[in-house]
Amino acid sequence: AGTLVGIGLGALSLRYTHAEWVEGRGWYTPNPWIGGGLTLVLLGRLAWRWADGAFSAGAAAAGSQASPLTLGIAAALVLYSLVHVGGLWWRLRQL
Q1: Do 35 and 80 touch, CB atoms closer than 8 A?
Q2: What is the span of the domain harbouring residue 27?
Q3: What is the pLDDT of residue 60?
Q4: Is residue 88 within 8 Å of 12, Cβ to Cβ?
Q5: What sections of the protein cross the membrane (predicted)?
Q6: Angle between helices 2-15 and 32-51 (to 10 degrees)
Q7: CB 28 within 8 A of CB 16
């Protein structure tokens, strides 16, 4: 689910990213809200888990480090970044 969300957010972000060539160099103005919001969600989730004791020594030994929700959010952030960078690269090559 995180991968689909990341791909969708990356595509949405590309719609709101302005790209142009200025003096022979590619420039772009990204939409700060989508990537920033996704980063804040991941940091908030990690802070929640830290406050809940998931990163303590006893929790690590018990194997409770891997949370499907946290991994899904991280996957969304990674796929968002890959789709955004790939789409931006493609768009600048088309200009």
Answers
A1: yes
A2: 2-94
A3: 56
A4: no
A5: 69-90
A6: 150
A7: no
**Rounded Cα–Cα distance for residues 32 and 40 (Å):** 12
**Cβ distance 76 to 12 under 8 Å?**
no
Contact between 52 and 67 under an 8 Å Cβ cutoff? The reply is no
Count of beta carbons in the 10 Å neighbourhood of residue 6 = 24
Of residues 17, 9, 16, the one with CA closest to residue 75: 9
pLDDT along the chain (95 residues), means of 10: 94 92 88 88 89 70 70 92 94 87
How many domains in the chain?
1
Which residue is it, tokens 């103005």?
A: 29
